[in-house]
Design a protein that fits this description.
- There is one protein chain.
- By secondary structure, this protein is mainly α.
- Helix content is 75%, strand content 0%.
- It starts with a helix and ends in a 7-residue tail after the last helix.
Length: 313
Amino acid sequence: MLWYVARRILYSIPILIGVTLFTFLLFFVSVTPQQMARHNLSARNPKPAQIKAWVKQHGYDKPKVVQFVDYTKSLFTFQFGKSDATGQDISDRLRHGILPSTELGVIMFTASLITNVFFAVYFAYYRGTYVDNWGRLLCVVVMSITTPVFIIAGQYIFGIILKLWPIAGYHIGMTSWKFVFLPALIGVISGFGGSVRLYRTFILEEINQDYVRTARAKGVPEGRTLFLHVLKNAAIPFITSIVLSIPFLITGSLLYESFFGIPGIGNITVEAVQGQDFATIRAVTFFYTILYVIGAIMTDIAYAAADPRIRLE
């Protein structure tokens, strides 16, 4: 397994370089250094000399090849440099943003997983009955409502009317959970429909297998068959959808962090896009890519752990 993981890490290097090159080229297609300078300089109408000085200060006056080489070296050595917009150290910003993003991601991920799997099994157990029919209808209704509607409604009901939880901000400490509980709750509700329908499909595919009919013929209770055998054999598709979402435990959510003013990595990304902060955008993109590569490797390892027939070679 160690040799397999080592090979996967080596294979991921071209992926990282490719993403780095794509991000670098996309920057010069979408915006020029002069436009970034005008956007980030404090003067309302900066003079050409000021623009030229800003471009030179940030190294955008060098040849493109030299910029890409320096850019790639800094990313692969995790020396992200300074923000183009604020001048702050990007590594420090990301380090401070990991905590709130991880706290929000862990709570949302754990609650969503338990809730979605429970209701998927529940609806599959009562498949074909009014419980299953009304459950599927509820899933479709939830899927038909966009996430911003859930966020605005949740903030208004739970934050303004009931005053149960704050609707914006974040404080590090023992009370930090109060600031992430409401966005996590809304995240569980908004993601309920699609996940439950997906997991229900996985379970129903296993229910129709021969081993389930054999278990029923032997008199094994339906609940025992469902929880001890069906769920275990449906682990592979579950793992695919679950493990690949693990990077979001660290990177957070762009939408929820923006609406609730949580200073996580997702919020940092939104601010960087709005501020044309290319230095921060490239660092966050590289960080995302590394996490997804790790998530893909963890998925393969989880496959082998869940199914003894799978060998990592």
